[in-house]
């Protein structure tokens, strides 16, 4: 370990975010790295071209800009290497394609991001991979689901839309006993609040579109591997030719510098609103792992250092045939909350969650599930806007 590596491990999280991945004096003291837009890289002579005896050979294999972001993510994740891809979904699918082959069996958490489920049910099955979904609360009992050909276990904690927690170290320990690779979508917590590789995960996946970028204007994903699995991930990425663009990498690296202070604001605002919602008569349940009332709270408290700004609540609606209409009435009553997909940016968002595709988990039966992303607006204004939504139900 170099002196600089040792110093980095002893720095606080916000200091790491400010300094990770780039030394200004590598480029004449400029505090941000330059944006190197490139495809072709020239070699000084034929021998160098034949042997690739220089750091950069072609832009799909990296540029100074993309390397700066990869180095920063490696430091935050504790990873041996990181790949940049054009979206969070691409980050998951690249990881699956790197480690799965026809005839393999894969275990996917049933609270997985919906577009990942679509990839599993279409592309993976077409490629001859057997897909099985499991309950996120299974813990070490996941061992009963393993088959001789189980090659990969995919986790997402908290789970999409309903925020079920997973016992990550218990599941990882079982998977490794069966020589299976463990992948995890960690976009909700970011490596600032949870570092998957420290808990037995082999491949940590981030949708940098969300909190790292932070401004709802960039699409990018990162896939970070431990030392054992880095070589195969890098080879798969080279074979597929998937890479992130320099301009996007620059923007995400700039967003990383303020991610810590933004996450603190997202977290505090979301918790205040979640507690406020718990006291509302129109709300049946609040689905937020940092609330003591949430079933997975103990696991969250044991393993995670914080929470982000995304959670859901169940609207109290007596008749199931009114779920959709009531959800839409609530959403149409909002003005500060935008109605849009994704999350992680500065503005608050809301949507009605569709849980029909799940195989194991049952959707809440007390009413429709509404997901909120709490942005950087004043909490009092957001509460007032949510109150308008509740008034619209009348």
Automatic annotation (TrEMBL):
InterPro entries: Cys/Met-Metab_PyrdxlP-dep_enz, Cys_b_lyase_bac, PyrdxlP-dep_Trfase, PyrdxlP-dep_Trfase_major, PyrdxlP-dep_Trfase_small. SUPFAM superfamilies: PLP-dependent transferases (SSF53383). NCBIfam families: cysta_beta_ly_B, PRK05967.1. The modification N6-(pyridoxal phosphate)lysine is found at residue 210. The lineage of its organism: Bacteria, Pseudomonadati, Pseudomonadota, Alphaproteobacteria, Hyphomicrobiales. GO terms for molecular function: cysteine-S-conjugate beta-lyase activity; pyridoxal phosphate binding. Pfam families: Cys_Met_Meta_PP. Keywords: Lyase, Pyridoxal phosphate. It comes from the Bacteria. It comes from Pararhizobium polonicum. This is Cystathionine beta-lyase. One of its GO terms (biological process) is L-cysteine catabolic process to pyruvate. Its EC number is 4.4.1.8. Its cofactor is pyridoxal 5'-phosphate. It is an enzyme of class 4 (lyase). It catalyses: L,L-cystathionine + H2O = L-homocysteine + pyruvate + NH4(+). Belongs to the trans-sulfuration enzymes family.
